């Protein structure tokens, strides 16, 4: 049998790239990949624009064996592209175990996709992505990730983007990381162009995601944050939806992802909006990574919104045991 054109280890990711000349906003182009694997398993994975006339579909095979790809797009140059020789080989990385799952037999516990037990040891590093963005080697970022891993942490809470803080604005000391050296959209936080994402920013973010995955650390992505001076897209706007789609498309193939609506989600008073956006993420995510909402009692205790959540994330600074007991009794 001839060698496969593409070989990917199980739970790892590979980018399939496609070039096209288009008019208008390339971030409005819709692209998805239809992957067919062993025993007819199918995954539909959305693609994303990565600059310079290139779109990517980032894929992580969940089963060993042979896979095929066929693209689907309303843009003719991106439609109907195929790859028929994709081989998923066994995972050889001892720190990668696939997606984090709620243990069906013990719903207050987690397991990895491959069955490995997981005891969550969390560390909040909101600005991890923003450290030494101008350093091609990301020296300090890797140093911090290595230190986090060496202390036994296996779960890092991190913002997708934050801009600055009210309580310590600007770079007053070594722990102030805002405003960051790069912006997540084109333009500036003061004059953003929310119709276009900053591809260079997210290429650097990819590097953080890879580093966390390769150290066996779950990346708990807080999609929004309300107290870090971010000029977010207008609520219920096409730009807001575009942002959530882009993040989901770009990062769902990282097997170490957990989706969190926002840091301190209680700041979003429109629970229906939060539910719609979380459901939108779930609808786009071929791998069904876990979803949560950080520290939002009203939302999390309302049974109308339970279908959008897989587990509760509570920010508790003192009485951890008491809060856990209270949550379990709800």
Description:
By secondary structure, the chain is an alpha/beta fold. It is built from six helices and 18 strands. It has helices at 139-150, 199-214, 238-251, 271-284, 297-300, 320-329, and strands spanning 6-9, 14-19, 31-36, 42-46, 48-49, 54-59, 65-73, 82-89, 100-102, 110-112, 117-118, 122-124, 155-159, 185-187, 192-197, 218-225, 257-263, 291-292. It is globular and about 55 Å long. The termini are far apart.
Q: What Rg do the Cα atoms give?
A: 20 Å
Work out the helix count: 6
Low-confidence stretches: none
CA(first)-CA(last) distance: 57 Å
Approximately how much beta-strand content do the residues carry? Answer: 25-35%
Overall spatial form: globular
Order of helices and strands: EEEEEEEEEEEEHEEEHEHEHEHH
> What is the strand arrangement across the widest sheet?
1-8-7-3-4
The biggest beta sheet, please? 5 strands, mixed
How many strand elements?
A: 18
Helix content: 10-25%
Average pLDDT works out at: 95
SSE class: alpha/beta
């Amino acid at each position: 049998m001839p060698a496969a054109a593409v070989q990917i280890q199980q739970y790892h990711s590979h980018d399939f790239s496609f070039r096209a000349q288009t008019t208008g906003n390339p971030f409005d182009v819709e692209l998805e990949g239809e992957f067919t694997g062993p025993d007819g398993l199918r995954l539909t994975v959305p693609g994303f624009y990565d600059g310079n006339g290139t779109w990517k579909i980032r894929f992580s095979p969940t089963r060993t064996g042979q896979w095929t790809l066929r693209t689907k797009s309303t843009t003719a140059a991106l439609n109907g592209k195929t790859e028929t020789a994709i081989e998923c080989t066994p995972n050889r990385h001892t720190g990668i175990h696939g997606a984090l799952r709620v243990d069906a037999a013990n719903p207050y516990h987690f397991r990895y996709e491959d069955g490995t037990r997981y005891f969550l040891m969390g560390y909040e590093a909101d600005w991890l992505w923003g450290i030494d963005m101008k350093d091609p080697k990301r020296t300090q970022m890797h140093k911090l990730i290595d230190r986090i891993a060496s202390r036994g942490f296996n779960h890092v809470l991190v913002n997708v983007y934050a801009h600055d803080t009210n309580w310590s604005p600007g770079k007053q000391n070594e722990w102030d990381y805002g405003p960051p050296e790069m912006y997540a959209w084109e333009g500036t936080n003061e004059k953003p162009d929310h119709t276009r994402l900053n591809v260079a920013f997210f290429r650097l973010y990819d590097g953080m995601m890879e580093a966390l995955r390769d150290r066996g650390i779950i990346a708990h992505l807080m999609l929004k944050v309300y107290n870090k001076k971010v000029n977010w897209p207008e609520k219920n706007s096409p730009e807001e939806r575009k942002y959530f789609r882009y993040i989901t498309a770009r990062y769902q193939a990282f097997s170490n992802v957990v989706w969190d609506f926002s840091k301190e989600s209680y700041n979003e008073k429109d629970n229906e909006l939060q539910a719609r956006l979380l459901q939108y993420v779930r609808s786009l995510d071929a791998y069904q990574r876990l979803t949560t909402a950080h520290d939002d009692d009203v939302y999390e205790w309302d049974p109308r919104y339970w279908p959008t959540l897989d587990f509760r994330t509570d920010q508790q600074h003192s009485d951890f045991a008491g809060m856990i007991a209270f949550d379990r009794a709800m």
